[in-house]
């Protein structure tokens, strides 16, 4: 995917002599978060909303007599419109930049790429892949969720993307409590209906960018890209409550990445399982975030 396919072409330019007041009015009128500073057709700087706010604070709310040249972030790097988006994202992470002016082969300013643009593109691409994957080979025949094979492939992709760009991700292991008793008491047909009901609850509770899969038996897994531990815990608690309202409870283990333990994608599954096991030992029907103690508790049994 090339930058030219996702960049914003609504880019405003000013000169170093443009007053800061005019810059603010321009950004407000066009509803944009930054402007590019040009001189003689060459990009020499960039001014963001954050730059404006910082200068206002420094000057007690006054911008009188201040020009763009005194406020802009400079020097500024530009990227070529035909560069791959993945390379651009790597440069953002490496250099700590939130946006890049984009230029044509002739060096003419043609757009701007922000972190938000790149993230939206990734999510759109991910959702497109989801829509195209209709083949039964990646679906669990009973619940309609993705199967273990698809989950492992998606986990590998997201794990290394998270490592490459230092983006948070989490994996949630969901295991139904005392499911064997359900099968023994009511029969396997009833047990299958319970699995289908729980699968529907999980599918409704996650985002379109998440992967919900049946891992095996009464175990389900949710892969949540671009999700930190706090948001994953909130999601897990919502799922736990919704499952409990259906008449059965579940124990959930949450594994976050990056962490100090997981070197490979399968490591994330292992520590999510350890956290889930700890939830079982603590009384079931609860959510546990993995820590080193989760492993100690499992090893001790």
Outline of this structure?
With 301 residues, this protein is an alpha/beta fold. It has eleven helices and eleven strands.
Radius of gyration: 25 Å
Tally of domains: 2
- Classified in CATH, the superfamily of the largest domain is Reverse transcriptase/Diguanylate cyclase domain
Poorly predicted runs = none
Number of helices: 11
What is the H-and-E element order? EHEEHHEHEEHHEHHEEHEHEH
Describe the structure in your own words.
- With 301 residues, this protein is α/β, with parallel strands linked by helices.
- The model has no long low-confidence stretch (mean pLDDT 88).
- The chain is built from eleven helices and eleven strands.
- Helix 7 packs across helix 8 (188-205) and helix 10 (265-281) crosses helix 11 (292-299).
- It has helices spanning 20-30, 49-58, 68-71, 85-95, 115-132, 148-165, 179-186, 188-205, 229-245, 265-281, 292-299; strands spanning 13-14, 34-39, 42-48, 79-80, 99-103, 109-114, 169-176, 211-216, 219-225, 250-257, 287-289.
- A hairpin with a 5-residue loop joins strand 5 and strand 6.
- It has two domains: 3-118, CBS-domain (Roll), CATH 3.10.580; 133-299, Alpha-Beta Plaits (2-Layer Sandwich), CATH 3.30.70.
């Amino acid at each position: 995917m090339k930058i030219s396919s996702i960049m914003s072409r609504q880019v405003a330019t000013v000169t170093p002599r443009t007053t800061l007041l005019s810059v603010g009015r321009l950004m407000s009128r066009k509803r944009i978060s930054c402007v590019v500073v040009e001189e003689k057709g060459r990009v020499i700087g960039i001014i963001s909303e954050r730059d404006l706010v910082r200068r206002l604070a420094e000057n007690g709310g006054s911008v009188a007599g201040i020009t763009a040249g005194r406020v802009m972030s400079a020097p500024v790097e530009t990227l070529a419109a035909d560069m791959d988006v993945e390379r651009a994202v790597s440069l953002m992470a490496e250099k700590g930049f939130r946006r890049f002016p984009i230029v044509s082969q002739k060096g003419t300013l043609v757009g701007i790429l922000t972190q938000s643009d790149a993230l939206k593109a990734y999510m759109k691409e991910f959702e497109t892949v989801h829509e195209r994957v209709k083949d039964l080979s990646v679906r669990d025949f009973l619940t309609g969720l993705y199967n273990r094979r698809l989950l492992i492939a998606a986990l590998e992709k997201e794990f290394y993307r998270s490592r490459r760009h230092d983006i948070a991700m989490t994996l949630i292991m969901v295991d139904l409590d005392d499911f064997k008793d359900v099968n023994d008491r009511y029969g396997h047909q009833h047990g299958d209906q319970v699995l289908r009901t729980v699968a529907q609850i999980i599918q409704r509770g996650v985002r379109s960018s998440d992967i919900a899969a049946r891992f095996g038996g009464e175990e389900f897994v949710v892969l949540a890209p671009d999700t930190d531990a706090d948001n994953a815990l909130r999601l897990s608690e919502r799922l736990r409550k919704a499952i409990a309202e259906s008449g059965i409870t579940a124990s959930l283990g949450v594994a976050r990445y990056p962490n100090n333990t997981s070197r490979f994608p399968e490591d994330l599954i292992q520590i999510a399982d350890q956290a889930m096991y700890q939830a079982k030992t603590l009384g079931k029907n609860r959510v546990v975030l993995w820590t080193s103690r989760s492993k100690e508790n499992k090893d001790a049994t």
